[in-house]
Structure of UDP-N-acetylmuramoyl-tripeptide--D-alanyl-D-alanine ligase:
Amino acid sequence: MKIAELHKLFLQSNNVSTDTRKIEKECMFFALKGDNFNGNTFAAQALENGAKYVVIDQEKFVINNQTILVEDTLQTLQELATYHRNYLKVKIIALTGSNGKTTTKELINATLSQKYKTVATVGNLNNHIGVPLTLLSMSSNTEIGIVEMGANHLHEIEFLCQITQPDFGYITNFGKAHLEGFGSTEGVIKGKTELYNYLTANNKFIFFNADDPIQLEKLNTYTNTYGFSETNNNFYKIELVEANPFVKLKAENTSIASNLIGAYNFTNVCAAISIGKHFDVPLEKIKIGIENYTPKNNRSQIITIKNNKVILDAYNANPTSMLAAITNFSNLKEENKIVILGDMFELGKEAEKEHNNIAALLLDLKIEHAYLVGENFFKTETVSHTISKYKTFEDFKNSFTKPNDATLLVKGSRGMALERVLDSL
């Protein structure tokens, strides 16, 4: 079946699903394959659960005229998403980066939705499956789409750009994330700038942080841009007022008080403001969007439990974000500060060095007490009475004494699930 014909059937469906456990009536089910499952085997169940059509790529699972047989289900999903994106002619903003992608995406959406009908990536569905699903969730009512793109290897952003065909783009930063896949920090920069490569090659528009020397250098000859800066008057000026703990800033003499903690979130807010300005959202509306946004899903949340205050930033971690979070935490005007850190994943051969660097940082910043959890942190060389190390979370839990009237930073990679600390409080 040609993509144009499939698209007509898609328009007759309510939405797209890849999981029979989440089937909605009249949806189009795509039978994807994984390491431990074959979606084709669930085609009949999808129809029983209310799917209008099922897209499969193995002939033996054909059931009736509601079954659409294609050569490759995943490739078809991706091609359908691109076709739909062009059918709608919607404006697409793509963003990637090592840290802050999801928060920045949410802030951009909060800002632009003050004036436009927007659709943004749900959660972190930012890979070769999530990006197509985001595009297919857009409708004729959508005016601006905000698509988050994640990657842990070279050429992934390039591929996602081919699917999405963005009109605008923004890179949050270049940090020490997914070093195992990218090979080095230079690999990270090369991989993330695949977004800029696509946009410049197609004469599209780029938003950027003019205080980031890497971005400034990459874009120094490209003019189709809009930059923001805290210090350079050649770009849209935004001033950081404070981050103790919440980020407060000033743009055009308008004060904006966010619900985000940490100076490291300043540029995330700046990106949303400058993108809103480019799309002619009034500054007073931008202020409303920023100030009404509250982080969730374990990202820079402040949670009060009994008489303890927890900064929960346990959604993910890498050396760059860990450094920023700990440094910001050490600058807070609080007493009795405790840090609980979990291992950072996907660092490959750099894992030992980067975990040792974080342990050394804790000593340099004179954190009152730190608990390091995970096999990598357990092997760090730093020895101090202010640092306790545990190989597993259970080891930590069994020896952790509930603090009294303390401020805690909890941060680690997703696989560590450090939000479990809340149960111990």
In short: The mean pLDDT is 93. The first helix runs from residue 3 to 12. The chain has three domains: 3-72, 90-292, 301-424. The longest strand covers residues 254-261.
